[in-house]
Amino acid sequence: MKLSARNVIDGKVSDVEIGAVMAKVKVEVSNPTIITALISKEAVEDLNVKKGDNISAIIKSTEIMVGKK
């Protein structure tokens, strides 16, 4: 599969929380860095995403927000 997004980060699913409509998928991209994706429950079910799966986090955005303490 080819994508227009240039930010593809491979990782492993560390947790999946499925709600009524949405799901929270946590992807460990390097220890201890975690990327959290909020996607539809239907997408999680269609892709059969589960803890321990190798997966890619694909980031396509016009904005990136940062914070500083």
Features of the shown structure:
single chain; 69 residues; mainly beta; OB fold (Dihydrolipoamide Acetyltransferase, E2P); 4-stranded antiparallel sheet; 4 strands; 51% strand
Descriptive notes:
The protein has 69 residues and is mainly beta. The chain has a single domain, classed as OB fold (Dihydrolipoamide Acetyltransferase, E2P), CATH 2.40.50.100. The chain has one helix and four strands. Strands 3-2-1-4 form a four-stranded antiparallel β-sheet. The model has no long low-confidence stretch (mean pLDDT 93).
Produce the secondary structure layout.
Blueprint: E1 7-18, E2 22-30, E3 33-40, H1 41-47, E4 54-59
Antiparallel strand pairs: 1-2, 1-4, 2-3
Unreliable stretches covering 5 or more consecutive residues: none
**At the fourth CATH level, what is the homologous superfamily?**
RNA polymerase II/Efflux pump adaptor protein, barrel-sandwich hybrid domain
CATH class: Mainly Beta
* Average predicted local confidence, pLDDT: 93
The proportion of residues forming helix, as a percent range, comes to: 10-25%
Number of distinct helices: 1
Beta-strand percent range: over 45%
Number of structurally distinct domains: 1
Amino- and carboxy-terminal Cα gap: 39 Å
Could you describe the largest sheet, including whether it forms a barrel?
4 strands, antiparallel
